[in-house]
Amino acid sequence: MLKIRLRRVGGTNAPAYRIVVSDGRRTPTAKIVEELGHYDPTKNPPLLDFDRDKAKAWIAKGASASDTIKRLIAQKA
């Protein structure tokens, strides 16, 4: 099953995340199917740049989204 989730990048004490579509049965660092954008919660306000339409299209195709991704999709468009 495909899953839309966050993949951590960045250094120690400086987390940043890529929003990716990957196989949910594998580890979060496994090969990705598609990268949808990025999220940096350390900025003020947090930097969020990803394609919500592509995320919704993947969900329509059967991919499941993590709780955090669901919250980010629901934020202002």
Give an overview of the whole structure.
The protein is α+β, with helices and mostly antiparallel strands and 77 residues long. The protein has a single domain, classed as S16 Ribosomal Protein, Chain: A (2-Layer Sandwich). Helix content is 22%, strand content 45%. It contains 2 helices and 5 strands. A hairpin with an 8-residue loop joins strand 2 (14-23) and strand 3. The longest helix has 9 residues, at 52-60. The model has no long low-confidence stretch (mean pLDDT 90).
Order of helices and strands: EEEEHEH
Tell me the name of the CATH homologous superfamily: Ribosomal protein S16
Mean pLDDT reading: 90
Number of helices, counting only DSSP H or I runs of 4 residues or more: 2
Under the CATH scheme, which class? Alpha Beta
Number of strands: 5
**CATH architecture group name:** 2-Layer Sandwich
Q: Portion of residues in helices?
A: 10-25%
CATH-derived topology: S16 Ribosomal Protein, Chain: A
Class computed from helices, strands and strand pairing: alpha+beta
* Cross-sheet strand order for the largest sheet: 4-3-2-1-5
Main traits of this protein?
5 strands; 22% helix; 2 helices; alpha+beta; 77 residues
Task: Please give the structural blueprint.
Elements: E1 2-11, E2 14-23, E3 32-40, E4 47-50, H1 52-60, E5 64-65, H2 67-74
Parallel strand pairs: 1-5
Antiparallel strand pairs: 1-2, 2-3, 3-4
